[in-house]
Write a structure and sequence with these properties.
single chain; alpha+beta; Sufe protein. Chain: A; three-stranded antiparallel beta sheet; 6 helices; 3 strands
Length: 137
């Protein structure tokens, strides 16, 4: 399987890996067919994702997609983070093999899941804002 240098870099030097102890939004998504599981932690203040971390159990593409997704949302307003789609993650990584595109979908879903949890903790129904999360564990 051929991976781009960007994918290899994010796999071997993942950004924002770990657990965020003061997270106010935690999302977990997975794909039962491949076994990949992504957990994303966000710290949101004044509608901005001021910090983000991830823990992923999965393949090269899953870890690289998680890493890239966190770099794409850190410092962004919630509304801007929710605009990030799997195609944006794919493009930022320079592409993924067709059989691994689902990893970028999981990254998009992990972002939505963490933000959704943030709204739930505030007592706000997240579905009208975030939408339905398909891959939630």
């Amino acid at each position: 399987m051929e991976y781009t240098p960007i994918v290899i870099d994010h796999f071997t030097n993942p950004r924002n890996m770990g657990e965020l102890k003061d997270a106010n939004g935690i999302g977990e998504v997975g794909n039962t067919r491949c076994g990949d599981v992504m957990k994303m932690y966000v710290k949101i203040e004044d509608d901005v994702i001021c910090d983000v971390k991830f823990k992923t159990f999965g393949c090269v593409a899953a870890i690289a997609s998680s890493s890239m997704a966190t770099t794409m949302i850190k410092g962004k307003k919630i509304s801007d983070a929710l605009k990030i789609k799997n195609q944006d993650v794919l493009k930022a990584l320079g592409g993924l093999p067709a059989i691994k595109i689902h990893c970028s979908v999981l990254a998009e879903e992990a972002i939505k899941s963490a933000i959704s949890d943030y709204y739930v903790r505030l007592g706000v129904d997240p579905v009208p804002i975030v939408g339905k999360i398909v891959s939630q564990v």
